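Dear Dr. H.,

I hope your travels went smoothly. While you were away I took the liberty of generating a structure for the chain from your last submission, since the lab meeting agenda had it listed for discussion. I wanted you to have the full record in hand beforehand rather than looking at slides cold. The sequence, exactly as received, is reproduced here:
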Amino acid sequence: MVQRSTYLKRTHGASDALEFELFFEAERRRLFRALYVMTGSGHEAEELLQDAFLRIWERWDRVSVMDDPVGYLYRAALNLARSRFRRIIRAARVPISPERSIEPYEAADTRDVIVRAVARLSPRQRQAIVLVELLDRSTEEAADLMHVSMSTVRSLTSEARKAMRAAMEPNDE
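The corresponding predicted structure, in token form, is as follows:
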């Protein structure tokens, strides 16, 4: 028997628009947080979130009956993030290096240190650590979403943890 998400089960007989709206409300915040961690930018995360949900809405008749519409949403968002990252890399080949602006009113130093540590990770390490640690996806689910093997996900998350620990160690200056 196909198991659909609980918010989709509650809407039995509801219109596609209502069903999608419930799906959107149930997943919006969590996807935004994941994309924010991956991109380091609220603006980028919001744009990717909107693009991912737009793609889901365009295919809602097929997505709503899938076993894991949430997984499909995250795969769409990751694919969009990868595409955007590739475009940025191509554009960055121009020898200009903009300085990062630091917000003067950071909520907490710890948060800032974590954001910086995550930003130093490669995009694949960032995707793996976000999926496994932040979104509590299993290694198998993360591998499926990233289109890599489970051992690659384990390796990427291990490398990411090691890099983050090193980046978060206090400097003795």
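Two observations you may find useful: The CA atoms of residues 69 and 99 lie 39 Å apart. The chain has nine helices and no strands.

With kind regards,
E. W.
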